[in-house]
Specification:
The chain is 26% helix and 29% strand. The chain is of the alpha/beta class and 363 residues long. Bound molecules: flavin-adenine dinucleotide and FE2/S2 (inorganic) cluster.
Length: 363
Amino acid sequence: MIYLYSVFSFSGLVILLSAGLMIAERFLVNYGICKLDINAGERPLEVKGGQTLLSCLYANEIFIPSACGGKGSCGHCKITVISGGGPVLPTETPFLSRKEIRSGVRLACQVKVREDIYVRIPEDFLNVRLFSSTVTSTRGLTYDIKEVRVKLNDPPEISQRPGQYVQIQAPSPEGPVFRAYSISSAVYEYNEVEVVVRLIPGGVGSTYVHNLQVNDEVTFTGPYGEFHLNEDPSVEIVCVGGGAGMAPMKNIIYSLYDRWPDRSCWLFFGCRTTKDIFYLEQFKELEKKHHNFHVIYALSDKLEPDEKWDGETGFIHLSVDKHLEQGVPRQAFLCGPPLMIEAVTRVLEEKGLQPEDIFYDEF
Ligand SMILES: Cc1cc2nc3c(=O)[nH]c(=O)nc-3n(C[C@H](O)[C@H](O)[C@H](O)COP(=O)(O)OP(=O)(O)OC[C@H]3O[C@@H](n4cnc5c(N)ncnc54)[C@H](O)[C@@H]3O)c2cc1C
Ligand code: FES
């Protein structure tokens, strides 16, 4: 009992001290104006010290991926700090490999600017823009998945690579937050962006998107993402998705066939029941137009007596294993729940794909 009492008292004291230090830092410590040097003089800035690096960059319209909105839980906001970032924090280490720590990679949302700071930011991030847009259509695809399309106002065009994503701004009681959503519209649709969003009960971003109506204004930043389609048309493309993980697959497939009508591509889509199926008919139409396009949907749950389905059944990685031959030059894009990504990656590696040929986003 005395032991427990001591532990609680000590923890309480530590929490009080930390809170005191945070309040003192916020209101009493003045770091003045600090220099923020980006890419060796490419974008020299002066910022008010005491804020996070992510906020300073955002205030200067440099938008780093930050799917968790700066809470330190997504690990997306990595940039290289050359000097002035202070020591790596315990909140950062779960997201950084030893190699990254050695080369100065940090989470921009965890680094506080307290002195002049020198950073290196990938050129891709410097091209990210803040967009204002207007909703032009909304459509329920299943009981919990909605498609929303917006027309871009300012800037009026977006230049994206297949499979990239945007971060949509949603209101929340604590102020605006950003959530990542893959772009489902193809790269040639310069003036529009479409997203496919699954409703997470109580979720801030997904509820906001599901409640959007035609003519509503939407703000987002983008494009972001590491997907790079292989430009060699002899390389076969494999897309594997589940649920809202369809969004980047739709973008990749339509962008691909606009450019290479004869390119070989497989779409594997995992659903639990027939209620989770969407876009099947339009992909079947595309399959008729492009002889090298193959669409496989598979249901993982046992069929109900009244359910009609003559397609494949079982987990989607089993379909991938069944249909893909060994040793063909390929690149794969996977989007869906972590367990699906893990199982499909294993199968693809057995088929001869190297880790650098497999791109994935877990959600
Ligand atoms: C690169 C990237 C691309 C993405 N693209 C898409 C996309 O195209 N379509 C799409 O629908 N989503 C996509 N997501 C997920 C999306 O960014 C949000 O995480 C998701 O919509 C939940 O946000 P929220 O604000 O609604 O929920 P939050 O308010 O963040 O969370 C509410 C609660 O739900 C829990 N929760 C959060 N996510 C899930 C989940 N997936 N399953 C179960 N519980 C959850 C949280 O832990 C919390 O308890 C993507 C994510 C990333 C990183
Ligand atoms: S923004 Fe998510 S970890 Fe930094």
